[in-house]
């Protein structure tokens, strides 16, 4: 089934038991990301992308933001479900109201996951913000585990921001 109203976009048949994209690995993840990227570029952003501003940033490397990938994949799976005939005549309205509006408001919010990226179409930018580190409870558990195993504490630096 091609995307409703978008001729020329390849058909997609969801797997019988769809999984969230972050649960996939290797080629399965890459294949899903490729199809998601086609939908995001050719449908979502083309139709619903609006203007890039400080209030609605975007990132040309959005696939590197795993939280954005997860949000957009969930949005895409809901799109697939709500465009089907069994969703009824109001299926796409429900998708717009319950899924599209909320997901885009989060992903493209001024303080959202893309807020350090592109805010001006003339100046493409990509930057991954550093997320929170492990909790003090996890750090203490890991320290105890290293001490019990006689391991030296790690001197590795965390991810660069």
Characterization of this structure:
With 161 residues, the chain is mainly α. The protein has one domain. Helix content is 44%, strand content 0%. The protein has helices spanning 26-48, 66-82, 91-107, 136-149. The N and C termini lie far apart (42 Å). Residues 155-161 have low confidence and may be disordered.
Shape: globular
How confident overall, as mean pLDDT?
A: 84
Oligomer: single chain
Low-confidence stretches: 155-161
What is Rg? 20 Å
Strand fraction: under 5%
**Number of β-strand runs:** 0
Number of individual domains: 1
- Helix-strand topology string: HHHH
Structural class, please? Answer: mainly alpha
Please estimate the helix content: 40-55%
The number of helical runs is: 4
Major beta sheet summary: none
End-to-end separation: 42 Å
Descriptors for this entry?
44% helix, disordered C terminus, 161 residues, 0% strand, single chain, mainly alpha, 4 helices, globular
How are the secondary structure elements laid out?
Elements lengths: L25 H23 L17 H17 L8 H17 L28 H14 L12
Short description:
The chain is mainly alpha-helical and 161 residues long.
